[in-house]
Amino acid sequence: MQKRTLLNTRAFELTVNRLCYQLIENYQDFQDAIIVGIQPRGIYLSKRIIERLKEINPSTHVIDGSLDITFYRDDFRRGNEPLTANKTEMNHLVENKKVILVDDVLFTGRSVRSAMDALLDFGRPKQVELLVLIDRRFSRHLPIQPNYVGSKIDSISSERVEVKWKETGGKDSVVLLMKKDQNE
Amino acid sequence: MSELSVEHLLGIKYLSTSDINLIFETADNFKQVINRPIKKVPSLRDITIANLFFENSTRTKLSFELAEKRLSADVVNFSSSSSSVTKGETLVDTVNNILAMKVDMVVMRHPFPGAGVFLSKNVDSKIINAGDGAHEHPTQALLDSYSIRERMGDVARKKVVIVGDILHSRVALSNIFCLQKLGAEVCVCGPKTMIPKHIESLGVKIELDLQKALNWCDVANMLRIQRERLEINYFPSTREYSMLYGLNNEVLDSLDKEIVIMHPGPINRGVEITSEVADSDHAIILDQVENGVAVRMAVLYLLAQKIRH
């Protein structure tokens, strides 16, 4: 397995910072907004963004939530791996709220589709936007595009993007894992 | 990533401890789902489930049906009084006829012990036992243990007494298996005529004195006297049973601790439990009913996961 670093710790921090300022530009005081992390990995990014937003402006109050999409996935009984659910923590209805869905990597778009379905079970949002740290371009199975993107990469489907978080014992970074050519 | 080690839910006997824990963890998610404004998820939208009740049931059937509907499954109901069973059709034929209409899972209650096991060997479908005679009632035991876990944090090392007609009770047997697999200590209590012979071989304590049993336990699960199953008199009168084995405030006040009271329903108020006790804060009877839907959703979801295209 070959590795290529896409974002090192410094670039990672800058990217998260930029995403935060982009959000502030559009949402100012975050009234009527709700930031929803998609379980399991989107919640690290959503928590980090909320943390950073509070550092930038300590008076900011953002409602957040985490959304599990297991029961809404379109590959139930189709994959080889059983699907195990994570915790959903939505203490607020999204009725008439502006929702920012947050995930780490956007690939086929299927998770985001499931997340939108799951979200609708908490009410009818006024608007839904999508924020991702990494956008794997040209690999979408569905017509879904992000509104805020940390970094865009071109990759093939056999490659894997791994986002590491200091919360889970790694260093904040993003690496691309490539399978070695079999002829090598 | 985990999945159940079994293909059907025929009894607690066949489950491993990790299966039970997986069901509970999944049920936690569904409990959250059924407490939202929109109490439904689309997981089983391409699954059809037949509820076959060859014996009367109100709440189990209702609970299963709600669980199925909240998972977006299609549901067909069938009860023996309105079926061809009365015209002499065999169980396998009845079920195969239903499966020919493209049904993926079968939830069955049957008066004969082992009916679920028999069916699982003879038809090609996922079978969930919703009670087979005096044998097992696995989802009831799962929801009972789930309710204990919810109220007390854990089931391991808890002392649970099951009071009443142990002889005719599938709830008792499934509960014994489930509680033991989760590491609880189990005691059965009731008139000697209603304690099966050799039940101590399952590793349970026997106590004929209710007061002593209650002093020992953390949780008391009060069973109903199932008059419909009593072919002879096992005790002189209902009044005497209620005096010796009925749970009332005086008995509870005489204990030096607080215990949790459970009942699988339907309650015979004034017989095995008085109204004051059934409606008190110690009783988690209605929590059990609520948890029943979440636990059944978990079981259906985890078994459906094993149906492959």
Report what the structure shows:
The complex is a heterodimer of chains A (184) and B (309). Chain A is α/β, with parallel strands linked by helices and 184 residues long. Chain A has a domain of 128 residues: Rossmann fold. Helix content of chain A is 24%, strand content 30%. Chain A has three helices and eight strands; from the N terminus they run βαβαββαββββ. In chain A, the strands form two sheets. In chain A, strands 3-2-4-5-6 form a five-stranded parallel sheet, with helices on both faces. In chain A, a hairpin with an 8-residue loop joins β7 and β8. Chain A is globular. The model of chain A has no long low-confidence stretch (mean pLDDT 91). Chain B has 309 residues and is an alpha/beta fold. Chain B has two domains: 141 residues, 3-Layer(aba) Sandwich (Rossmann fold), CATH 3.40.50.1370; 151 residues, 3-Layer(aba) Sandwich (Rossmann fold), CATH 3.40.50.1370. In chain B, 38% of the residues lie in helices and 15% in strands. Chain B has eleven helices and nine strands. In chain B, the strands form two sheets. A five-stranded parallel sheet of chain B has the order 7-6-5-8-9, with helices on both faces. Chain B has a four-stranded parallel sheet with strand order 2-1-3-4, sandwiched between helices. Chain B is globular and about 60 Å long. The two termini of chain B are 20 Å apart. At the A-B interface, loops of A face α1 of B.
